[in-house]
Design goal:
With 83 residues, the chain is mostly helical. It has one domain (15-81): Aspartate Aminotransferase, domain 1 (Alpha-Beta Complex), CATH 3.90.1150.10. Helix content is 30%, strand content 5%. The protein has helices spanning 22-34, 65-76; strands spanning 39-40, 57-58. Strands 1-2 form a two-stranded antiparallel ribbon. The protein is globular, with a radius of gyration of 13 Å. The chain starts with 21 loop residues before the first helix and ends in a 7-residue tail after the last helix. InterPro entries: Kynurenine-oxoglutarate_AT (IPR051326), PyrdxlP-dep_Trfase (IPR015424), PyrdxlP-dep_Trfase_small (IPR015422).
Length: 83
């Protein structure tokens, strides 16, 4: 659940995700500022139900243990952006 992630109000997102859901912005922010990639969950829904996934991000764990440990360490930095 990414509903508590807050990025700075003046944070700039690329034009390709303007107009997309909150999950796209959170995924972009987490990837660029924290260094861990995720998948916006709303991408898996039809347009009618896209809002269901807007507060979620999907993380894949198909990596070796060292990579997963580093991702866990990086995700700790996300705490400063939680409300």
């Amino acid at each position: 659940n990414i509903s508590k992630v807050r990025w700075p109000e003046d944070y700039t997102f690329p034009a390709t995700i303007e107009g997309r859901g909150r999950d796209f912005k959170a995924a972009w922010f987490i990837a660029n500022e924290i260094g861990v990639s995720s998948i916006p969950v709303s991408e898996f829904y039809c347009e009618e139900h896209v809002g269901i996934g807007e507060n979620y991000a999907r993380f894949a764990f198909c990596k070796d243990l060292d990579t997963l440990r580093r991702a866990g360490e990086r995700l700790q930095r996300l705490r400063e952006y939680l409300v």
